[in-house]
């Protein structure tokens, strides 16, 4: 297994990431749904009132609902360059139903999805693939993954019975019609406008990965799996704004991920950071301060921590970056566009 190496300076083989005019990130699944959150010029919220759905206990036999929330993450990424818009699905949530249910309630047609990217193999990011296959008819739908995504893993917490995690099956996915594309290296999609990072360089001293309870099967024995080597992120460069970085869980370390994206692309500006930052729980709360300090120094215009970020980190990020931090929620859309009135080169 190749292990990411700390790397300084510019990339030996830099990625020429073409700028886009606009990206819209719509959170299809997050750990929370809050119908009372307010939107703004770049944020659109989903209120209560989606429906109607069957509910015989009411006089009309129906009710209106909001969106589903669960311990998982999924986002629809719509990238526009000129008159052309491409829609990508980044992760699929925990359960077979939540992502496709929420997409349906938001009026999103699964047949519009042109490719799927999985941030890593954990089941709370891949569980919705079954629902997608059932709704879309996914004949030859490209799916970009790291080759270690099939790793068998478990949680072995002292004093408890080990819990083996669901492991993705390449055979099953290909049988459903997904065209699986394995890459360790960075990948460019959508005519060079979307970067999938591949393996992320681990350059910070404090982002050390998962605790000893997180283990992988080597073929002979269970061993500590700190790196989650298949962890990768999606990156877009909004013209004259900077990078938009979308993470699943951020197992590589969210600061490592941003630095890696900056180094690969040569674009120093971080415009937005969205997704799971994995700062929840006793193993990760000690690094909240250093992570927040580093992200504050990067001065992003928008920070939307979700999923596994944790409430302590949310409070710290909101306090440190009050103008950039925005609460996440299933059904929230974040529109990031190039400055108006400027033409691309």
Per-chain topology:
Layout: E1 22-29, E2 43-44, E3 50-54, E4 62-65, E5 74-81, E6 84-90, H1 98-105, E7 115-117, H2 123-126, H3 129-136, E8 141-145, E9 153-155, E10 163-164, H4 170-175, E11 178-182, E12 187-189, E13 194-196, E14 214-217, E15 222-224, E16 234-238, E17 242-247, H5 254-265, E18 270-276, H6 288-298, E19 302-306, H7 311-320, E20 333-337
Parallel strand pairs: 6-7, 7-8, 8-11, 17-18, 18-19
Antiparallel strand pairs: 1-5, 1-20, 2-20, 3-4, 5-6, 9-10, 9-14, 12-13, 13-16, 14-15, 16-17
Protein name: MBL fold metallo-hydrolase
GO molecular function: hydrolase activity; transferase activity
Organism: Trebonia kvetii
Give a quick precis of the structure.
The chain has helices spanning 98-105, 123-126, 129-136, 170-175, 254-265, 288-298, 311-320, and strands at residues 22-29, 43-44, 50-54, 62-65, 74-81, 84-90, 115-117, 141-145, 153-155, 163-164, 178-182, 187-189, 194-196, 214-217, 222-224, 234-238, 242-247, 270-276, 302-306, 333-337.
